[in-house]
Design a protein that fits this description.
heterodimer, A: 289 residues, 11 helices, B: 13 helices
């Protein structure tokens, strides 16, 4: 086993982690602000992939789909928050969100099946990202390197946004004490809507990025949402850094597991989560509540 | 009193049904009753402890696979096979419950989901035992030394399922009406207060998760022996989601509501999936509507006026955990 091979494996794992991060970080942001676990996040990721596919088919531009698909899906997410979720905030029972978003996941995947059909759709890797890079005598697809770069860029951008901007400050404040922020005169409802939309847009971006690799298929939302839950729970619900660490962990477990222990790859991921939760019930970086 | 009368009347009608419906419908009816039983087992968690399990398929699948293995390998009589399958599942459920109840709310939901998916993954790992994606086929219903052949026919099996359902219902009803059940209601309404009163709520929750798995396994075992096969789909999270929908739409915390929810949904699914493939869309939309506007479910709406217990004192003045 050469050094180049190990490096290629690690890069493969990191590119997987990048896609997962796009979903997990939206999930954790939404949870941090709203205490809502969005069960439909996988379906929204899938919607992003399909919308991206249509934009590429119509305009022929991959870059345009990277911009437009998140805007469209983020907008839909905000509408959903306004029309449905908002009415549940007063309810004592937090499980209602779980149930409602689960219903949304079912409805959304059926709508996607009706609109785009049951056939898997492949948008293909755009020309300028096609090709193979040779790293230490090991061939490695350029597109996967692009994914790693995109993931890194997104992580940096969100981190800077949360830490350095006024909107980021507001988001962190709402996640710590929404009532106090409200009392100080900020429209907390608006922050909630925006964050829900942002989370959905991130998932859609992940969907567009992942689509050329996996081809958009029905059910891609299901597999991915469970992965994202594992990441978010392992990293600590609501923790941004936790979702980053969790994504990398799960990315490595999935890629290396699939290579060395085919059948056990799935089981490994859950084992990892169970171990983390038994030791730290709140997740790696989470508060226990 | 009138409740007991209507209960007896319902049981009587169910007893007569095999003579009134065609054989084809009897198949659907048996499946419906099994799913009703399955939904009721989940109601113990959802309706009485407010623990949303997204992995209740694990109980169903484990019950089905244990029954399948016991019946095909050991050729034990059917009733003993089913009882053993329930025992095996409850034993497995103890450590699972211990881990899952470390957390509540969303984490609990995801932990149960993870365990169910772990079980699903294991089916493919231990292909020699479980048959992998083919599952286990050709499950017999051995009559045993007493020559009990009555459940080998469809009508006989219907009575077996009906008996299990009624027995389980009476047992669950007794449980939720007992002092044990009162503590569960305390956990649902205000866990912190229940702890302050000196109850070890964790132990109560573990016991309830194990109980729910037991009844769920009974449903799974009955299904496996009826269908004659056990496949990995039984473990899949869609089953968990479906049964959760049935519980909520039927009316969580009423026991009878989820049974009706399960029965009606299986029937509707059979009828509607033949004429329209929009069924999952309708299913999902109906579910969302109920979560939004009628969280008490169908049975909750029907009995609201007659039952004063639906409005528990102090239920409205808690602070919402959504705003936290």
């Amino acid at each position: 086993m050469s050094l180049g091979f190990i490096l290629a494996q690690c890069l493969g794992a990191l590119s997987q982690a990048a896609v997962l991060f796009f979903i997990a970080c939206g999930l954790t942001l939404i949870f941090g602000i709203m205490r809502i676990i969005n069960f439909a996040h996988g379906a929204i990721f899938m919607l992003g992939a399909y919308v991206g596919f249509t934009i590429v088919a119509v305009t022929g531009s991959f870059l345009l789909s990277l911009v437009l698909a998140p805007i469209v899906v983020g907008g839909l997410g905000m509408a959903f928050e306004r029309v449905f979720l908002r009415h549940l905030y007063g309810r004592r029972d937090g499980g209602a969100y779980l149930l409602l978003t689960f219903g949304l996941a079912v409805v959304l995947s059926e709508l996607i099946r009706m609109i785009w059909g049951a056939q898997p759709r492949a948008s293909g890797i755009p020309d300028f990202l096609r090709g193979i890079v040779v790293i230490l005598e090991q061939p490695f697809p350029l597109y996967r390197l692009f994914l790693i770069a995109a993931g890194l860029a997104a992580a940096l951008a969100i981190w800077q946004f949360l830490e350095r901007t006024r909107a980021g400050l507001l988001i962190r404040a709402v996640s710590q004490n929404a009532e106090m922020v409200h009392a100080l005169g900020t429209d907390v409802a608006l922050v909630r809507t925006a964050v829900f939309g942002l989370g959905c847009a991130m998932a859609a971006l992940g969907g567009v990025l992942a689509a050329p690799l996996v081809t958009a298929f029905l059910g891609m939302g299901t597999t991915v949402v469970i992965d994202a839950f594992v990441i978010v729970i392992m990293g600590g619900m609501g923790s941004f850094l936790g979702s980053l660490i969790g994504s990398v962990l799960v990315g490595f477990v999935q890629v290396l597991g699939a290579y060395y222990f085919q059948d056990l790859a799935l089981a490994f991921m859950y084992f990892l989560m169970l171990i983390v939760l038994v030791i730290r019930p709140g997740g790696l970086l989470g508060r226990e509540d | 009193m009138s409740r007991n009368v209507s209960f007896a009347l319902t049981v009587g009608i169910c007893m007569l049904l095999p003579f009134m419906v065609p054989q084809y419908s009897l198949t659907v009816l048996i499946e419906a009753l099994i799913f009703g039983l399955f939904a009721m087992s989940l109601d113990l968690l959802v309706g009485y402890c407010r623990l949303y399990s997204f992995g209740h398929a694990a109980a169903y699948g484990l019950g089905a696979y244990s029954a399948a293995l016991i019946l095909t390998r050991l050729l034990l009589p059917l009733p003993i096979g089913i009882v053993l399958a329930v025992l095996v599942t409850t034993l497995v459920a103890v450590p699972v419950a211990w881990i899952c109840t470390r957390s509540t709310g969303v984490s609990f939901a995801m932990l149960t989901l993870a365990f169910a998916q772990l079980g699903y993954a294991m089916l493919f790992r231990f292909r020699d035992i479980t048959g992998g994606s083919d599952g286990i086929v050709g499950i017999p219903r051995p009559p045993g030394p007493l020559g009990m052949t009555w459940f080998q026919g469809k009508t006989g099996y219907y009575y077996l399922v009906l008996g299990c359902l009624i027995g389980s219902y009476l047992l669950c009803r007794a449980i939720v009406r007992s002092p044990f059940g009162a503590v569960l209601a305390g956990i649902r309404e205000n866990e912190a207060k229940t702890i302050a009163l000196g109850y070890n709520t964790r132990a109560y929750k573990i016991a309830t998760v194990v109980l729910a798995h037991g009844f769920g396994a009974l449903a799974g075992a009955l299904y496996a022996a009826f269908a004659g096969f056990a496949s990995p789909e039984l473990f899949f999270w869609l089953v968990s989601g479906r049964v959760l929908i049935m519980v909520v739409v039927g009316g969580a915390g009423t026991l009878i509501g989820p049974v009706l929810g399960g029965v009606f949904f299986v029937f509707l699914e059979h009828e509607l999936s033949e004429i329209t493939d929009l069924w999952p869309l309708i299913f999902g939309s109906v579910f969302m509507t109920f979560v939004m506007f009628a969280p008490q479910g169908i049975w909750g709406i029907l009995t609201r006026r007659s039952s004063p217990r639906a409005e528990l004192p102090g239920a409205g003045n808690e602070t919402s955990d959504a705003a936290a």
